[in-house]
Amino acid sequence: MAILKIIKNSLLKGIVDLPRRELLPEAEQLGKELKQVIDRQFHGSFQLRQVSAGSCGACESEVQATINPLYDLQRFGVDFVASPKHADALLVTGPISRNMLLALQKTYEALPGKKFVIAVGDCAVNGGLFKDSYYTLGGVDQVLTVDLHIPGCPPSPTTIIKTLLGFLK
Amino acid sequence: MSIREELKKTIAPLAVNDRYPAESYLTVKPADFIPACLALHQLCASPVMMMFAEDKRATRSCFRLNTAFYSAAERHWYYACLDLPAGAESFPSLAKEIYSATLFEREIREMFGIELVGSPDHRRLRLHDEVWPAGAFPLRKDFVPLERLEPPTGQYEFIKGEGEGLFELPVGPVHAGIIGPGHFHFSVAGEPIINLEIRLGFTHRGIEKLMEGKTLAAGLELSERVAGDTSFAHGLAFCLAAEKIAGLTPPPRAVLLRAVYLELERMYNHINDIGGIALDVGFSFASAFASVLKERLLRLNEQLSGNRYLRGINVIGGVAQDLAGPVTLNPLLSDLNELEKILFNSASFIDRIDSTGILRQKTAEDLGVLGLAGRASGLARDLRTDLEPYSSAGFRPIVCTSGDCLARLNIRLQEFRQSSELIGRFIRQLQPGELTVNAPAPVAGYSLGAIEGWRGPVLYWLKLNEQGTIERCKIVDPSFHNWEALAYAAQGEIIPDFPLCNKSFDLSYSGNDL
Ligand code: SF4
After folding, report:
1. Mean pLDDT of B426-450
2. Domain B207-513 architecture
3. Which of the listed CATH numbers 2.40.50.140, 3.30.460.80, 3.30.70.360, 3.40.50.740 matches domain B3-117?
4. Residue A59's closest chain B neighbor by CA?
5. Distance from the CA of A59 to the center of ligand 1, in angstroms?
6. Cross-chain Cβ contact A103/B291 below 8 Å
7. What domains does chain A contain, in order, with CATH numbers?
């Protein structure tokens, strides 16, 4: 019954599509080019594993937002995965609390192949407001070689998408 | 009879300080400390709301211990204060009498090196034994950041379940989703969880130490980064404390605008969790729907204030800017109704959340659970009831009694609507006028700022010196009170329901870890 209702609805109303295309015209163009790069170099998908190394949570919220239906980063072939073993890149947020150092390093080691590291947010870029603390180590580059910095406190989903796409291209 | 008079029957405080409205500091003799706390605990009908130490060795050669209770009936905060002479830093553990003191005591011990006599639990919370040496106490004034850390030798001792067929299942600190870090140590017999121990501290950044010596403006900026999803409430609590010390009353327009933003913060987080609960039972359509609503609220925040997470709006004495546009919430509300229909028409969804992860009222009360999680278990406490502009708007907290994931979902759905009503009401009340009052010259003093954020009470106890810089800042996010409740709610549930229980509380890692 429910299925019939859904089919009837979609016939009557059309498939619901959100007006995302107007939101990110530049990203739209970048995305098309990126899709080709990803298809060519990463066999069709670029997978990220996120690790919070002491972030306040707002950076995660913005990273999470990039895959909501309004931005829908996944349609360009970029996605977030649960296991580092499936990931092409490590996306790190936060100023590296001492307590997270070991977990961060272990996650990094679990990545196969060429490991990209992306630092998202001022904290991950250089320690942000927490850089003088007794318990933080500063930016991710104090610990790992970082391939891409995405500054901002927090960087907006648009910034994250644009910087990421630009980098991969 | 007032609490003060009742209290006099049992103890005679050495000194009473009522300098600030709605706060009384009662200094007691060491022998009176536990009786005073117990009496306040009962008279106020309050858990230990906060307990913290100050290092006053430079001026008074002692550490001072403050234990705060809140009486909703009197709308008044009572502190039992105890001076611990330097050199003999120890105090009798309160945790055996009042459970809600446990975590605070462990915190005081690791941060100040003050010994607890007879404490049931000595383990460190945030300075993990594996990375931080013994004998370094960051919140002592004479602490110097260690150049090189001695290789620590400690190891955290988890509570072990023992018995035939019992397994230990460690999970974290890195989890599958895009979330913060925490470690969950399960003891399971097959699927059911026999015991869960939660170890946190992974996002510890030493915020309370960083606060020391900062100006108010810099402190405010930092407070907005304690818990990213509660930026506004944290900033507001900080401002309220600073304003009380300086004797400032923010203009009516600023009070209303702050309430508008506070409710907007509640709305975007509630919808985020409604979607998160749906996602954790695999209902991805509903969760995608909710994530669109959240994004629309974040964009509304940006239109109104220039910041998606409402940072930079609060200033000491008011708000920095006016609303930059109209607040249209009706389309969101009709979408919420739609979402609610989608959720409640799915029998398999309701089946998963109904009577899952029950936190009983008695357990909640004993643990000292606050805020949303407490209201879902029948504890009708909400600081907004006692604060303007809510109290004159006739604010009543929304309460459920079943204490399960469904109750926590229902509270969020209803509070979402309540918030939007409140916003409408506050905006109608707006009169043209000033946004801030000018701050006078720096004043020394100490006081508490308290506000009900979306998870529960956010508390900032602030002490300023003559130059107006921060001497001590104690921060309590409601998550600190509530994490333990999750461990109880998950008991007896099966492992696949744990993420659901966790999301239904949605506690902050960073707010807890500081
Ligand atoms: S950069 Fe800003 S938003 Fe991101 S974790 Fe740090 S303080 Fe939070």
Report:
1. 87
2. Orthogonal Bundle (1.10)
3. 3.30.460.80
4. B228
5. 6
6. no
7. 25-168 (3.40.50.12280)
Please say whether the beta carbons of B503 and B290 come within 8 A: no
Query: How does residue B259 score in pLDDT terms, banded at 50, 70 and 90?
Result: very high
For residue range B323-340, list pLDDT tens digits in order.
888 888 888 999 999 999
Asked if residue B498 lies in contact with residue B217, where contact means CB atoms within 8 angstroms, the answer is no
Nearest to A70 among B202, B229, B295 (CB): B295
State residue B270 phi and psi, 5-degree precision. -65, -45
Report the nearest atom of ligand 1 relative to the CA of A121: 1
Going from N- to C-terminal start, the domains of chain B cover: 3-117, 207-513
Q: Are A124 and A100 in contact (CB under 8 A)?
A: no
Ligand 1 atom 8: the closest Cα is on which residue? A56
Ligand 1 contact, A155 CB (< 6 A): no
How far apart are the CA of A83 and the nearest CA of chain B, in angstroms? 7
Instruction: Print the SS3 string covering B263-316.
Output: HHHHHHHHHHHHHHHHHHCCCHHHHHHHHHHHHHHHHHHHHHHCCCCCCCCEEC
Instruction: Look at the block and give the residue holding tokens 């239906």.
Output: A69
Structure tokens at B85: 């002479």
Using CA atoms, how far apart are residues B234 and B453, in angstroms rounded to an integer? Answer: 8
Amino acid sitting at position A92: V
- Chain pair A-B, CB pairs under 8 angstroms: 134
Q: What is the pTM of this model?
A: 0.93
Contacts of A18 in chain B (CB under 8 A): 292
The secondary element (H helix, E strand) that includes residue A50 is strand A46-52
Nearest chain A residue to B125 by CA distance is: A99
Assembly ipTM: 0.89
Name every residue whose Cβ is closer than 8 Å to that of residue B272 and which is 6 or more positions away in sequence: A61, B229, B290, B291, B294, B506
Torsion of the alpha carbons at B40, B45, B51 and B57, rounded to the nearest 10: -20
